[in-house]
Design goal:
heterotrimer, A: mainly alpha, two-stranded antiparallel sheet, 9 helices, B: mainly alpha, 16 helices, 2 strands, globular
Chain lengths: 211, 337, 187
């Protein structure tokens, strides 16, 4: 029972969709350079993914895989429209700044593939909790990435200047995103491995150990 | 201690001797600040390497001192007046992100120094590409003044060279701290090639490629072929980055073409865009090519050893081949597989 | 000389190295040579044929309905998805089982959808269908180049020498980051 519970909540830390499964990495790499962008992406991803997966969960499971995938993509493309209109109200300028990565969130792997492979097989209440934790996992990574990259690349936090006297401008570029996310991913695996070893009740995974 | 391990240490020692000689030349032209810069690089790299090895639960051995030669290379490709913090960050980047993340010295993918140079170039381009004049010595804690563009920049953009051949040979022109001492670099190249510390094939490929293109497509009607060697860190990169035995293909034949293509690409980039020190950037871009060639070399070695084993077994069981052509065919079959 | 410049231009517009589009797909595809060839081929088909549908959507869809652009692209890619799967099924049922995974992997990912959105964003009223098609083909070629870059280092990035925490994806990400950094510094 405990294992089952922990697997439902694991979407945020233990099985983070960005750091563990490397899903939805493009927006994190390209747009996760400031907290403002990160906040806009968090809103867009959370809204589009939650609504799309919830609506898509009513699609009959008897349909063939290809048809289901297409229906999920079409539903999320519909959901994208009101989410975008709301973003223009609440995050002025964010849609332009994020550019193509905003609509790309509508066809992210969590909606199209992971939901079909994992979420829709669960009871509805479990599915919702798991989905929320997956979304929170993405949000946490996005905010952390936006915060660190903005601080070290521009010497600001949410646009306010702080005392960083040698800003690393390259960190705000796509390659900076790649390198930062790679290091972040390694650090995450290291911590996860340490936690797993400490708990001892969860099977140790050699692949994620630091040694 | 195995023969290879001993060899690795001797290679490091030879390279360090040549780098220290270049550092001394740099001190002569730019003063003690250059030596302090080198010292900071070495100390930061050494400490970072030790921390990384500790985190990977590995012991620090004499072979791990190779990080100090990479550190000195980083110091020598920067201006002598470079901000200490920036070189320290560059060294940390080289040791952590370009080396130890991939497994350290046992699994080198990029030249740490080249990766660090590009890292600095992308974040602090203006500071990196402005140099002090020779003999204009900046104090250890002084703010640099009177910085100028490098001779490479002037040559790339105008095709003109305002220095005598003797000045060029002695390194008496503005540029990166250690990569302008051409005479010293040539001596270092000969010494390192003779002692088999660097890949002779890659070095020759780079030199021949640059010479060939300089002759076919000169930068300007008055430009001498030699100018293309002394500018844009061509010789320095050819010795310490492209010919690095950890990176270059093992077989001299492949290494030659590896060096040749880097030279051709970087020359074309310099001619068409005027990009300063393009050879260092191209050497990083050619890393996948080098890795691809190394994979090919491994497959060939494997195919050869399998074929020779196959032949030995068959000969010993009296299933002898009529002629060598059959063995060759077998080898080819295996290598195709 | 022109060839070198073209190669650099191709790297400079590479969808993975400069826009990080299709990174996850690339990591999956680089696992084996067969996967790599299959996925790269399918992505090239989707970006190429998809760019034609993007051209039609851009020309026919009135400006005030531009919010529906994504939906139109998704429908076009879905139709292409069904057509390719059906064609493969009727041509060779034996190959269908082996090849369909590449089609599933290549459809609706950032590489394909991102290419259509990028091409559409860069296009003006006078942009011809040939330019759309060329951009689609360029994106596919860019994916292949990135895949080759990653495949060359695949064994080293997954070797036992790499610390376990960084083995695989994190090391691949940093490797691509350094290559991307070199490309960026050339532009």
């Amino acid at each position: 029972m405990n294992k089952k519970k922990s697997s439902i909540f694991s979407g945020m830390l233990g099985n983070n969709i960005v750091l563990s499964s490397l899903m939805v990495v493009s927006p994190v790499i390209i747009c996760g350079d400031t907290l403002k962008n990160a906040a806009a992406l968090v809103y867009a991803f959370s809204a589009i993914t939650f609504l799309s997966v919830m609506i898509s969960s009513f699609v009959p499971t008897k349909l063939s895989y290809t048809v289901k995938i297409i229906i999920y993509a079409i539903i999320s493309s519909f959901v994208y429209i009101p989410v975008k209109l709301a973003a223009q109200e609440f995050f002025p300028g964010a849609v332009e700044r994020i550019g193509i990565y905003f609509p790309l969130l509508a066809v992210n792997s969590l909606i199209i593939f992971r939901s079909e492979a994992e979420l829709y097989k669960l009871p509805k209440d479990h599915m919702i909790v798991k989905l929320i934790f997956y979304i929170l996992g993405f949000d946490a990574v996005m905010i952390a990435t936006g915060f660190v990259r903005e601080l070290f690349a521009y010497g600001t936090i949410n646009g306010r200047i702080v005392d960083v006297n040698t800003p690393v401008i390259g960190l705000a570029q796509p390659f900076g995103g790649f390198i930062f996310l790679g290091l972040f991913c390694g650090l995450y695996r290291c911590i996860r491995s340490a936690v797993i070893n400490k708990k001892e009740d969860i099977r140790s995974d050699a692949d994620v150990s630091c040694k | 201690m195995t023969k290879t391990a001993r060899k690795e240490r001797f290679i490091w020692l030879d390279i360090m001797i040549t780098l220290v000689a270049l550092e001394l030349m740099s001190c002569f032209y730019y003063g003690m600040r250059s030596a302090v810069l080198g010292g900071i690089c070495i100390v930061v790299s050494l400490i970072t390497e030790m921390i990384c090895l500790r985190l990977m639960s590995r012991r620090f051995t004499a072979d791990d001192l190779t990080c100090t030669s990479d550190a000195l290379i980083i110091a020598l490709i920067m201006p002598a007046t470079m901000d200490y913090k920036i070189v320290a960050i560059a060294c940390i980047f080289a040791v952590v992100a370009a080396k130890n993340v991939f497994g350290g010295r046992k699994n080198i993918i990029f030249s740490p120094a080249a990766a660090a140079y590009i890292f600095v170039l992308t974040s602090w381009e203006k500071m990196l590409l402005l140099y002090p004049e020779p003999h204009a010595k900046t104090g250890i804690f002084d703010e640099p003044e009177g910085l100028v563009n490098s001779v490479s920049y002037v040559y790339n953009t105008t095709g003109k060279m305002n220095h005598t051949d003797f000045e060029l040979l002695m390194g008496n022109f503005s540029g990166p701290a250690g990569s302008v001492s051409i005479l010293m670099l040539l001596i270092a190249a000969v010494m390192l090639i003779l002692r088999k510390d660097i890949s002779a094939g890659a070095f020759m490929g780079t030199i021949i490629g640059t010479a060939f293109l300089s002759y076919i497509v000169p930068a300007s009607p008055t430009a001498k072929i030699g100018y293309n060697f002394v500018t844009n860190m061509v010789i320095f990169a050819a010795v310490y980055i492209i010919s690095d035995r950890r990176i270059a293909p093992k077989r001299q034949y492949y290494a030659f073409f590896y060096g040749l293509f880097i030279a051709v690409f970087s020359y074309v980039i310099v001619i068409t865009t005027g990009k300063e020190n393009a050879i260092v950037i191209v050497s990083v871009l050619f890393t996948p090519v080098s890795l691809g060639i190394k994979n090919l070399e491994k497959k060939i070695d494997l195919a050869r050893s399998e074929a020779s084993e196959y032949a030995t077994v068959n000969i010993s069981t009296d299933a002898k081949y009529d002629d060598e052509s059959e063995i060759v065919e077998k080898m080819e079959d295996i290598s195709h597989e | 000389m022109f060839l070198v410049n073209d190669l650099i231009a191709l790297l400079a517009t590479n969808l993975i190295l400069t826009q990080a589009l299709g990174t996850s797909t690339l990591f999956i595809a680089a696992g084996s040579r067969k996967n790599l060839v299959g996925t790269a081929f399918m992505i090239t088909i989707f970006t190429f044929a998809g760019s034609v549908s993007a051209y039609l959507a851009d020309k026919l869809l009135p400006e005030k309905y531009s919010d529906f652009k994504l939906l139109i692209y998704v429908i076009s890619i879905s139709m292409l998805y069904v057509i390719i799967l059906s064609a493969l099924y009727f041509i060779s049922r034996n190959n269908f089982e082996n090849s369909r995974k590449y089609i599933h992997l290549s459809v609706f990912n950032c590489a394909v959808m991102g290419t259509l959105l990028t091409v559409s964003g860069r296009a003006s009223e006078n942009t011809s269908i040939l330019k759309y098609m060329a951009a689609g083909l360029e994106a596919g070629t860019g994916f292949i180049i990135s895949a080759l870059i990653l495949t060359a280092a695949y064994r080293k990035l997954n070797s036992a020498n790499v610390p376990a925490a960084f083995r695989g994806f994190p090391a691949m990400m940093i490797y691509l980051g350094i290559i991307s950094m070199a490309v960026y510094s050339l532009i």
